[in-house]
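Weekly puzzle thread! Below is a chain. First person to post its structure in token form gets bragging rights.
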Amino acid sequence: MAQSWALHSPPLRKMDGPRDILHLDMDAFYASVEQRDDPALRGRPVIVGGHPKRGVVLAASYEVRPSGVRSAMPMARALRLAPEAVVVPPRFLAYAEASEQVFSIFERYTPLVEPLSLDEAFLDVTGSKRLFGPAAGIALRIREEVAREVGLPCSAGIAAVKFVAKVASDMAKPNGQREVPWPETKAFLAPLPVARLWGVGPKLEATLHRLGLRTLGDVAKASPEFLTEQLGDTGVHLGALAQGEDDRPVVPDRQAKSIGAEDTFAEDTDDLDALLPALHAQALRVGRRLRRAHLKARTVQLKVKLADFTLLTRRRTLETATDDGQRLYREASELLARLHKPGPVRLTGVSAQQLVGEGSQFGLFAEPEERAQRLNAALDAIAARYGQSAVGPADVAKPDVGEEEEEARRRVGAAHFDVLPKP
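Winning reply:
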């Protein structure tokens, strides 16, 4: 999904006063969950990752980061940098369950919650201050509740715009928060390196350096004509961000274009039947996410990536919109069966598209949908009390410890929600 930039953002003063935006980010999320659930891992260098030759680092605890280990790094390189690290296979159900608990806390304070991934979100608390007090106090309360109820650390940035809130939370890690009052925005940004700007990777960073632009303050002082001449519309965008101009609103789940989940496998397989349990788990995750967002889907899409990185997608429009993970699975599995052995598969995903609000769809299958809704409501209540792994279909039920460890090693990709593009 392409990022949509407001390249000609108006100054924040054109709004009805500055907003109060929080960026909340779980610290080393997967690794923190592992350390929470296994006291023997606390205080130790922990890497959550897959196959040592093919896998990548999904999360690195703060204890292992001084060795240079970072997320998305090849496991082989990470183990060379930190041979003493404890490698833990991923447990995706545990991470999804923790994520849902965290987001339910976010939603206590505002309906304007924009997920970026399982472990971070923007919140607009401008309208929440009358109930809960200043934005910094709201951030502190959320972090305390996440620590107390979920047992995980969380960092927060507080600012008038999304970009500055994200930078502030990065600088507050681990387990801290930083507020940037609106009048101090430009002074806060000025000394930061240009790599802090969204969209600036190594190549663009080198280009900016060649132009004599090394800090955000340098970019902010450059004339719009110079930035446009050298970088086109990208220059205009970077100049606006460097001055703290970012008028994009916080967009909650219910305005999402799609909600999805996908997994990459440590070993390719050409047995389509062997993919069904993963597909089932993905569909159930999407269904839970839809229900939590009070949305239903009119279209189901299957995503399959082959060993040669060829990407195949198939979709089907439904007679009636649904938030039932079992129905999503049935549709996705039929789409998979129609691929007729495309070759070794390395990734599968299920996404819900053409989203509509609850109660907006009627059709021929209302009675079965009502039964599914009652069942899902009961399952959601059980999951809320006892965890997502407490009950579920047999093919995705929690196996015994040995089987769970073997299955986790097989899967190295992180489940994610394609709700909105991550900056």
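Puzzle host: Confirmed. Bonus trivia for everyone else. The CA atoms of residues 245 and 323 lie 38 Å apart.
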